[in-house]
Amino acid sequence: MMDTGYDLNHFAFQRILESGRLIATHDFINGDDDVSDYGDFQQEHGTAVFSIIGGFDEGNLIGASYNANFILGKTEIVDDEIQGEEDNWVAAIEWMEALGVDVISSSLGYIDWYDTSQLDGNTAVITVVADIAASFGVVVVNAAGNERNSSWGRIIPPADGDSVIAVGGVTSTGQLYSQSSPGPTSDGRIKPDIMAQALGVWGAYYSSDGYRTFSGTSLSTPIIAGGLALILEAHPDWSLDKLYNSLRLTASNADVPDNDMGWGIARMFDMFAVDGYFIVVEPTGIVNQKDTVEIAVALFDSLSSPGGNHDIRVTLLAGTAELIGMPVPDGPDTLTQSVYFPFPGIQKLEFYDRVSQLSKVIEILVYGAMDIEFAAVPNPARDSVVFLFELPHQTETEISVFTPSGEKIVLLKVPSEQTTRGKNRKSWNAKNNSGGKIASGIYIGYLKTAFGCQTTKFAFVK
Question: How far from chain centre, in Å, is Cα 85?
Fold first, then answer.
């Protein structure tokens, strides 16, 4: 992280120093490695911000990612606002990237030599460099700023970067912090991206080795940065796109993001468990033309427990199926998608989870009314009759025999497991439902299947 300076003698940082997890420091203002050489107000902001992400003083303060390794840059002059500070920030991020940093927490930004028309993600030097760092795989987290009520009235660079996570602020009750900078960017993108507590945040105070509350998006930023460090530790294979999308889509305002709250308050535990999975319960029976089928989706989190955070969308990839609305909850851990099949043929559906970025494609064969081969042999028959029929798929089948006047003589049922795709046969001993032999004469065979019906005429001679 880069900031004003740090009181490294504060007890909150003792654990980091004793365990050798302060990897590197550099003062870009004075050109040396001492980032705590002022025992005055210059240390206040950096000390507080650093403690919120990395401090550990059990009973007083536990930082968001207190067991991480840290790199500290001193870039900001408290009593001045000059372009040299932006240059320091740029030099610091280049230095940190070269050292292999994973996450950068920056509670700084510059507006004095820019105007809001330049918040397009491609103009401010600090923004361009932040996006470049992100292109190298660095997670750049920056404060949205506290300019809501100022003449500037917008987020501050580099929070306008499309690859920068801009952090706004809320109160302890989840209400918008009154000074948190809003979006949008000048090219119309929603900002901020995410929210965390900014009013009354507990942190280390440089002058007394004690603690007090601080306010501003400078304090919400390390909360998010520390949380993302933990997420990356749990999911080291995640790309930046996966990380950013998961952060947004699990937040409290994900369904209706806006330029005040962005995607809402971060839900880090939900994000941790977001890399779950889902199972599409494919239809097991025959699907016929004009059927409406409910397809169930079972949801699981990354710990294989039912539930998790998902945003399932269904798309027709091939065929004529019609999706009826969106997937709807059917219990706490299941969704149901209704699908209507107006025509026969192969239907291909994709189930995609926008949160875990997993997809499942299923194929459903829909059968329509069709001509089915059906015959009785020999014809004329003596003693017994063999019914021959052909099926496109296993299915329960019924064969009825009628007299020409419509009297049903017998009903023969063939269970699905006794049929096969292709040619089938069913023998009949020419006895009626009462067990008596049928009389000589003309009879009509009627075949009923899930794929359609067919008749055949045959003669029986005693």
Answer: 38
Rounded Cα distance between 251 and 334, Å, is 21
CA atoms within 13 A on the CB side of 198: 27
Q: Is the model's pTM score more than 0.85? A: no
Sheet of strand 385-391, all strands in order from the earlier edge strand to the far edge: 374-377, 385-391, 422-428
CA distance to 33, 90, 398, 450, per residue, from 447 (Å): 90, 80, 6, 10
In DSSP notation, 367-431 reads: E------EEEESSSBSS-EEEEEEESS---EEEEEE-TT--EEEEEEE-GGG--SEEEEEEE-SB
Say how far apart CA 458 and CA 378 lie, in whole Å: 9
**Domains in the chain, start-ordered, CATH in brackets?**
2-272 (3.40.50.200), 277-367 (2.60.40.10), 374-460 (2.60.40.4070)
Return per-residue pLDDT of the chain as tens, 462 residues: 999 999 999 999 999 999 999 999 999 999 999 999 776 789 999 999 999 999 999 999 999 999 999 999 999 999 889 999 999 999 999 999 999 999 999 999 999 999 999 999 999 999 999 999 999 999 999 999 999 999 999 999 999 999 999 999 999 999 999 999 999 999 999 999 999 999 999 999 998 889 999 999 999 999 999 999 999 998 888 889 989 988 998 899 998 999 999 999 999 888 877 667 899 999 887 888 889 999 999 998 776 788 877 889 999 999 899 999 999 999 889 999 999 998 888 899 999 998 878 899 999 988 876 667 899 999 999 999 999 999 887 888 999 999 998 899 999 999 989 999 889 999 999 999 999 999 999 999 999 987 778 899 999 998
